Recover the amino acids of this structure.
């Protein structure tokens, strides 16, 4: 719009400048010709001849558009259609500028040249500039009018154009947000007019299709691992279990077997947690979304864990808790449970753990604070990574997956997990929007899972 | 109990079948979805154990077909995809319970017995009191007495005891307790259930003899007169 406006201004300015320069040049040329004619006359016929010519000219110009005045060396008028030598200014180019009143008393600008004769006389020849001034004013008016109309047009066109651009960019932004929220099947809108936006949308869609097929193959691999590894693990664990039930084995062997079963269970729990994080992150949990009474959920979690705290002489407090949100109830409970579990696990005996929530309009924040060792600021981002554990907790058993799972659950709900200082201790904030901006991931039941299944070998084939 | 196992993996199948036979049940086995569906629709079984991924027909489709045909045989779905959404899909298809691989046999057995008993229990929904040895629970007034002495329980402790009493003599696993008493399906990082059981024991068992709440190694808990 700015570009359009200024280019219109430059164009009109150029016309103005060119036109007035042309008109001025025309006037000047006329006067110069006049002066040249009179000079010539001087040379040929001398003073009296010139006077006759001037008289003739004056007679032929009753409107006084051209003024003549011949004065003697001591400024006495000899001849002309002006009564006295006009007061005026001589510019650098030798032009003499002055004004004269016309019959209606209006000041009219004149411009002329002064010719000095050999007898010391001065001849002033001037032409009125009214036409030039009027033309200039006209161009000025046109200039301003064009500018105003042009600016209005540019403004209007700009609004129309940019609102259409904004609309289309908005549509792409909206779709992107929905996709980020897990609705991986959504695609950018295409208008079908094959403009730049359509090409952008087509390219983005092609990219999304590619990502989609990659996710599908990753999921197929995960499902394959799940099927191919967990099934033999089930058998392994089953055999161990059967062995441990054997009546004629020594107590030592039985204890070792049970310890091995516990180890296998840890392995399987880690494995299950990994698979779970992967599945939550891929955004296919859409069936279990309901309205969650978060107050009741926090109360349930508190009730479940305050007993665990008491065993360790840690007081678990429940603060304010009321609010509703849309989401997966079991996953949210899992997240809160992991946070409480961590807080209790890393807290010293005799300390306090606090569970509370805040309703901040569109956002619900669940906070779990403890008085344990906390997490150094530099490590706060890393503890959300899989398997990362801080140096302060090396003595305490854990998989390093607990917070990763909570983080995955938070992001799955369009929220985030924030680690803060409780001075002393750790304060974990789980921020959850009441309704996900893009709604629950509405991938149909059949969509990804079935597609991924297609890539799986039939179970019978994989095991012979 | 007559149980049909539809499972294509020979190892898992023999593990389940062996365990079931050892516990005194009659077992038929089928490794193919189509044949399995045919056998299951005969209606000769007390319970079905169906793997979710099968050659031929998908495990969930079998359940769906059976339910559409009016067959209500209690069904337990097995799957390597032991995830919450799969559980929801399984239950929506008409299965009675769902168990993800790998599982402990005790967990499978406990769940199988729970679903197989369900119709009977639902028929006797008017039960208002349960008694095991000298422990008496009035389900209406929520009063608990042992050896004539009143025991004061918190609401959740009462629900825990109620669930154990209703399933008296049967093993209930920790996951079953979380799902049925706390009504959440999740993976606790620590054995939170053990803490609550030990609190309940302190009130119900500590000052009395014999103990009624027993720990079943590698499986869960059982409320009964004798271990």
């Amino acid at each position: 719009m700015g570009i359009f406006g200024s280019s219109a201004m430059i164009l009109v300015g150029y016309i103005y400048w060119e036109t007035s320069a042309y008109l001025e040049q025309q006037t000047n040329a006329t006067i110069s010709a006049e002066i040249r004619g009179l000079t010539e006359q001087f040379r040929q016929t001398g003073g009296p001849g010139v006077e006759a010519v001037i008289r003739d000219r004056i007679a032929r110009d009753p409107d006084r558009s051209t003024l003549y005045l011949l004065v003697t060396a001591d400024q006495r008028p000899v001849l002309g259609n002006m009564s006295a030598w006009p007061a005026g200014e001589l510019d650098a180019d030798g032009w003499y500028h002055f004004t004269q009143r016309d019959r209606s008393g209006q000041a009219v600008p004149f411009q002329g040249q002064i010719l000095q004769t050999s007898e010391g006389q001065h001849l002033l020849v001037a032409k009125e500039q009214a036409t030039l001034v009027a033309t200039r004013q006209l161009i000025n008016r046109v200039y301003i009018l064009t500018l105003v109309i042009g600016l209005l047009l540019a403004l209007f066109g700009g609004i129309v154009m940019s609102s259409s651009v904004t609309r289309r960019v908005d549509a792409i932004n909206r779709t992107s947000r929905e996709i980020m929220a897990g609705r991986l099947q959504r695609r950018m809108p295409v208008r079908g007019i094959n403009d730049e936006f359509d090409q952008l949308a087509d390219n983005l869609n092609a990219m999304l299709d590619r990502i989609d097929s990659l996710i599908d193959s990753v999921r197929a691999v995960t499902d394959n691992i799940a099927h191919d590894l967990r099934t033999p693990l089930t058998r392994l664990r089953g055999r161990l279990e059967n062995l441990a039930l054997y009546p004629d084995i020594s107590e030592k062997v039985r204890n070792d077997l049970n310890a091995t079963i516990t180890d296998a269970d840890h392995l399987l729990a880690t494995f299950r947690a990994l698979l779970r994080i992967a599945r939550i992150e891929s955004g296919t949990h859409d069936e279990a979304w309901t309205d969650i009474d978060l107050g009741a959920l926090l109360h349930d979690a508190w009730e479940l864990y305050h007993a665990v705290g008491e065993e360790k002489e840690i007081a678990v407090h429940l603060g304010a808790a009321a609010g509703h949100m849309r989401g997966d109830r079991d996953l949210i409970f899992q997240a809160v449970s992991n946070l409480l579990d961590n807080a209790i696990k890393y807290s010293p005996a005799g300390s306090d753990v606090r569970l509370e929530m805040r309703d901040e309009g569109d956002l619900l924040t669940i906070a779990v604070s403890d008085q344990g060792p906390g997490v150094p600021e530099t490590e706060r981002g890393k503890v959300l990574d899989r398997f990362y554990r801080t140096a302060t907790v090396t003595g305490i058993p854990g998989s390093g997956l607990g917070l990763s799972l909570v983080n995955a659950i938070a992001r799955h709900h369009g929220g985030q997990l924030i680690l803060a200082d409780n001075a002393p201790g750790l304060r974990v904030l789980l921020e959850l929007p009441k309704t996900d901006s893009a709604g629950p991931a509405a991938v149909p039941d059949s969509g990804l899972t079935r597609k991924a299944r297609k890539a799986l070998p039939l179970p019978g084939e994989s095991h012979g | 109990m007559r149980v049909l196992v539809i499972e294509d993996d020979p190892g898992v199948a023999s593990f389940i079948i062996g365990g079931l036979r050892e516990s005194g049940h009659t077992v038929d086995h089928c490794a193919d979805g189509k044949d399995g569906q045919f056998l299951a629709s005969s209606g000769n079984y007390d319970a079905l154990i169906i793997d979710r991924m099968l050659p031929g027909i998908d495990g969930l489709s079998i359940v769906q077909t059976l339910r559409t045909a009016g067959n209500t045989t209690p069904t337990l779905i097995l799957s390597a995809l032991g995830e919450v959404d799969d559980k929801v899909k399984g239950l929506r298809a008409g299965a009675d319970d769902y168990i993800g691989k790998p599982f402990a046999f005790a967990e499978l057995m406990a769940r199988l017995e729970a679903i197989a008993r369900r119709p009977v229990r639902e028929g006797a929904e008017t039960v208002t009191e349960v008694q095991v040895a000298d422990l008496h629970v009035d389900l209406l007034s929520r009063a608990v007495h042992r050896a004539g002495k009143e025991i004061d329980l918190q609401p959740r402790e009462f629900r825990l005891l109620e669930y154990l009493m209703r399933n008296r003599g049967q093993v209930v696993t920790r996951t079953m307790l979380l799902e049925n008493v706390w009504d959440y399906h999740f993976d606790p990082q620590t054995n939170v259930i053990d803490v609550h059981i030990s609190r309940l024991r302190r009130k119900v068992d500590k000052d009395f003899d014999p103990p009624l709440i027993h720990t079943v190694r590698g499986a869960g808990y059982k409320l009964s007169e004798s271990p």
In short: The two ends of chain A are 71 Å apart (CA to CA). Chain A touches chain B through 58 residues (CB under 8 Å). The CA atoms of residues 70 and 193 of chain A lie 78 Å apart. The first strand of chain A starts at residue 66 and ends at 71.
